[in-house]
Specification:
Elements lengths: L4 E2 L2 E2 L3 H7 L2 H5 L1 H8 L5 H5 L4 E5 L2 E4 L4 E4 L2 H4 L8 H13 L11 H13 L2 H4 L2 E5 L4 H16 L4 E4 L12 H5 L6 E4 L13 H15 L12 E4 L2 E2 L5 E2 L2 H13 L4 E4 L23 E4 L11 E5 L16 H16 L2 H20 L5 E7 L2 E6 L19 E2 L5 E3 L6 H13 L2 E2 L1 E3 L5 E4 L7 H22 L27
Length: 504
């Protein structure tokens, strides 16, 4: 075996040779992974890419191809890959000789992170907030938040919403998995338009969802004891990119406050400017009792915290093994400061609105697009079977309907979800050098989570490639039926080569 050195070491193992740039070693990576890791690693199965370099929105694979990344680590990369301010913050801690891991001791790095975090919080919470560091996963933060409200109220039950993040196969939200076996989680309807749980949509559908919640909060007479707390997402991500109506969220806050039920807002997928406000709950002007923060809060490194009202502090010992890694806190401080100082939340709001406008125009031209929705740079495109038939693979729920048209009128019963088409669109996007995600109960919603640093030029390329992939996948998917006719004349943009250099 020919040996060479990499950072002073003999590169004889496949891992070291791959890191050093050995193409032969890299080619074996996707073959070895399925034999060593569980099939639950769905990203690896759906996206056969071996990243070797990344910067901003661009990923370079081991095969030399370049991709525009609209997955962003599931929303973790607010500034994209390897942003200079993040790398500088990490290097500074490493070069300082500071410990990289300590228990919950006070350190200058932690103090700087908490100070910057408190600058960004909604005023009503920041004025009397405590912060608690959790394990490295968002589930750890949810479990911590639920433990806090149970200890504070002396109650055990939890109110959560259908479609919550993350949603296991059984449909139960994270609150169910984090709860003790003897604690009950009551699931409530989450308002939406296209597949309204009451078949109405719009303001009337949201009103019925609020009334349902009010009834459940009525006390023992309803059969549901007053809960320890309620947890919700201001925009459901894994549920299919469903923004909560602002008026509904304000109503929910009043209902919980009047009954002394702590409200926990899960900002794992929506925080740090993603939706066009620094925290998505700010769109409605609601101040929660606790916020679960993960993903982007760590600046690409694992970090989760719960920010809560000081009177919810249970003062119980046992912070766990990872109560805030020093490198993650330094990276998180850099991201929070950069987003705040450069107005990136406002940029996300403007760019997201322009992308939604263009996608809605596309939706009017393709019958396979059921609805386009989102907030800021958290965008979802729900794909449906345009003829309402079943080709053997697109077996999605139709929902109670009727759907609501953009003008607020009833738009007819929604078409069946098309997960097979969505999977085909993801493959076609990958062929064009675009990485996207799928979400929703049937994995039929194309989800875009581009970095907050995305430029208009990059967004245009993303939408060109996505439009081309949609048209190709729909044509191929339904070729055995009658040819899908656009509702309006449309010319697909030229298909960019997947290996070309993306803008920026």
């Amino acid at each position: 075996m020919v040996e060479f050195t990499y950072e002073g070491r003999k590169a004889t193992s496949p891992a070291v040779r791959a890191a050093a740039g050995d193409t032969t070693a890299r080619e074996g990576v996707p073959r070895r992974q399925p034999a060593r890791e569980p099939t639950a690693h769905t990203y690896a199965r759906a996206l056969p890419v071996v990243p070797v370099r990344a910067r901003g929105m661009t990923i370079e694979g081991a095969d030399g191809r370049r991709y525009l990344d609209c997955l962003s680590g599931g929303g973790t990369l607010a500034l994209g890959h390897n942003h200079p301010v993040v790398l500088e913050a990490i290097r500074k801690v490493i070069d300082s000789g500071a410990p990289l891991h300590v228990p919950d001791l006070a350190t200058p790095v932690k103090d700087a992170f908490v100070t910057e975090l408190f600058r960004t919080l909604p005023p009503g919470l920041a004025d009397r907030a405590h912060v608690r560091f959790c394990g490295p996963a968002g589930t750890d933060a949810v479990a911590t938040a639920l433990r806090l409200v149970r200890a504070a109220t002396g109650r055990t039950g939890v109110l959560a919403f259908t479609g919550a993040h993350p949603a296991p196969a059984g449909g139960s939200p994270d609150a169910t998995r984090a709860a003790p076996s003897d604690a009950q989680t009551t699931l409530l309807p989450y308002p939406q338009d296209y597949r309204c749980p009451f078949g109405i949509g719009g303001e009337r559908g949201a009103e019925l969802a609020a009334r349902w919640t009010e009834t459940v909060l009525g006390g023992p007479a309803t059969g549901v004891p007053l809960p320890a707390g309620m947890i919700l997402e201001p925009v459901q991500g894994d549920g299919g990119v469903l923004p909560a109506p602002d008026a509904w969220l304000r109503r929910i806050r009043r209902l919980t406050a009047d009954r002394s039920v702590p409200l926990i807002v899960d900002e794992t997928l929506t925080g740090v400017g993603r939706t066009g406000a620094f925290w998505a709950v700010e769109h409605s002007g609601v101040t929660p009792d606790a916020m679960v923060l993960s993903a982007a809060i760590g600046g690409s490194l694992p970090l989760t915290v719960v920010v809560h009202r000081d009177d919810l502090d249970d003062r119980a010992p046992g912070a766990g093994t990872f109560p805030g890694n020093q490198l993650a806190m330094a990276a998180g401080t850099a991201v929070l400061g950069h987003v705040r100082e450069n107005g990136l939340a406002a940029h996300a709001a403007g760019l997201g609105a322009r992308m939604l406008d263009r996608l809605r125009t596309l939706a009017g031209e393709l019958a396979c697009v059921g609805e386009v929705r989102g907030r800021g740079l958290m965008i979802g495109i729900e794909l449906v079977d345009p003829e309402g038939g079943d080709d053997g693979s697109d077996r999605g729920t139709t929902g109670p309907g009727p759907a609501v048209a953009p003008d607020g009128t009833a738009g007819g019963r929604p078409r069946p979800a098309a997960p097979g088409l969505a999977a085909a669109v993801r493959r076609e996007c990958l062929r064009r050098g675009l990485i996207i995600d799928l979400s929703g109960p049937c994995a039929s919603v194309v989800r875009l989570l581009p970095p907050l640093t995305t430029t208009d030029e990059q967004a245009g390329v993303v939408l060109d490639r996505l439009a081309d992939a949609l048209q190709t996948a729909a044509r191929d998917r339904f070729a055995h039926r009658r040819t899908e006719q656009p509702r309006h004349p449309h010319h697909a943009p030229p298909r960019p080569a997947g290996g070309t250099e993306p803008p920026g």
